[in-house]
Write a structure and sequence with these properties.
The chain is mainly alpha-helical. The protein contains 17 helices and no strands. The longest helix has 38 residues. Keywords: Antiport, Cell membrane, Ion transport, Membrane, Transmembrane, Transmembrane helix, Transport.
């Protein structure tokens, strides 16, 4: 089965790569196609793809994919635009994120009778971060106004790292592991370690890494055939080192990408290096979503019920969109633009990682939590994937008309 699985995934990757340009302009983006392929080839479909991937294996693939996407997207960020429109991501991270968690907790309290209050808070936190990989069609499309594009990119790059310490504090409290430190001390410990060590790792690795790469290029030390390696290796190094020392690998990858992009801003090789790194990220993304469709989704279908479905729909709409709309009030954004920003809060890789972390815990409501996350991700893949290109075209046309 190992070689059959490899043959199927390789053949699918080859075919999709030949049609990637066409698919990127269609209503069905990569994540939708990858997931549907996994479902079709998996146990509920033809049963040709029989992956024996365990939870830790899926978590590792999802983490590496997210780290690559975060690093590459951050490296391409236009810091000049971001500086002018910093209020958008600032309000999304400082105001909208906690409001989203609070609203998600309230919805869970109304819908789920079998969860404790801490488990409800854990569910809201698991589904609060947005996914940079699923939002790539929006943040990489030049027709989207730059402030909105950079704002969404910056939000998705940091909100998962911010949610990590919150999730770990809630898990520790739910499992009775807070000890004598108290909630405030426990929270401060996680924030300092996750965010602080993540940023420190990015500075220590990305700045000298970018300098060495520029020096190697200027002296013609690097071979053409090795250009796809440095950025990929640097992104994974930032992630892995931060995780090893107790920091947030996601924060390290995103901040490392920003520092790398700033250090190489005017270098001739920057574009080629990032293009090749994005190719590696796309390949990892394909494997992740195929595995999600074949393994996770296929095994979870029987566990769905109306309560989980209702919460998933609320999570993607009211729970996300209402706080975003409210906190962006007062900025130079129309109602349509605020709704656009609120809608494009897709859930994906970060929530998969969080679900695996929670699934390995001793919580009584672990199955309800995991199934709700799976259902939300599935709906997000479908709804955000199908709506991305039409809504981007609509927003671009609206911006063009306003400019006239």
């Amino acid at each position: 089965m190992l070689y059959q699985n490899l043959a199927l995934i390789a053949a699918f990757a080859c075919i999709y790569s030949l049609l990637a340009g066409v698919m990127s302009r269609s209503w069905f983006n990569g994540a939708v196609v990858f997931t549907l392929f996994g479902v079709a080839m998996g146990p509920v479909g033809l049963n040709w793809l029989q992956l024996s991937l365990n939870a830790d294996g899926l978590r590792l693939i999802a983490e590496l994919t997210l780290a690559m996407v975060l690093f590459a997207d951050a490296a391409k960020a236009d810091l000049t635009v971001l500086k002018r429109s910093v209020q958008i991501p600032e309000r999304l991270l400082v105001l909208s994120l906690p409001l989203t968690i609070a609203l998600g907790f309230g919805a869970a309290w109304l819908l789920f009778d079998d969860l404790t209050l801490l488990e409800m808070a854990i569910l809201a936190t698991m589904l609060a971060p947005t996914d940079a990989a699923l939002g790539k069609a929006v943040v990489s499309d030049q027709s989207v106004p730059a402030p909105i594009r950079e704002g969404l990119n910056f939000e998705s790059g940091l909100n998962d790292g911010i949610c990590v310490p919150i999730l770990f504090v809630l898990l520790a409290l739910a499992e009775g592991q807070s000890g004598d430190r108290g909630v405030s001390m426990l929270a401060m410990h996680y924030v300092a370690s996750e965010i602080g060590l993540g940023v420190l790792t990015a500075i220590v690795l990305a700045v000298p890494g970018a300098w060495l790469l520029k020096r190697s290029s200027d002296n013609n030390w690097i071979e053409e055939s090795w250009l796809q390696v440095p950025v990929v290796a640097l992104a994974i190094s930032c992630f892995a080192v931060a995780q090893t020392i107790g920091g947030s690998g996601f924060i390290a990858a995103f901040v490392g990408g920003i520092l790398f992009g700033w250090q190489t801003a005017n270098h001739s090789l920057k574009h080629d290096l990032l293009e090749r790194a994005e190719g590696a990220g796309d390949s990892l993304s394909l494997v992740t979503w195929v595995a999600f469709g074949a393994v996770v989704l296929s095994k979870s279908l029987a566990a769905f019920d109306w309560t989980i479905l209702v919460y998933a729909l609320l999570s993607l709409t009211v729970i996300r969109m209402l706080p975003v709309f409210l906190v962006l009030t007062g900025l130079k954004l129309g109602g349509g633009e605020k709704l656009f920003i609120g809608w494009f809060g897709p859930r994906g890789l970060a929530s998969i990682v969080f679900a695996v972390v929670v699934y390995n815990s001793s919580l009584d409501g672990v199955h309800t939590l995991a199934m709700t996350v799976v259902c939300t991700i599935v709906l997000s893949v479908l709804f955000h994937g199908v709506s991305a290109n039409p809504l981007v075209s609509w927003l671009a046309k609206r911006a063009s008309n306003n400019a006239e």
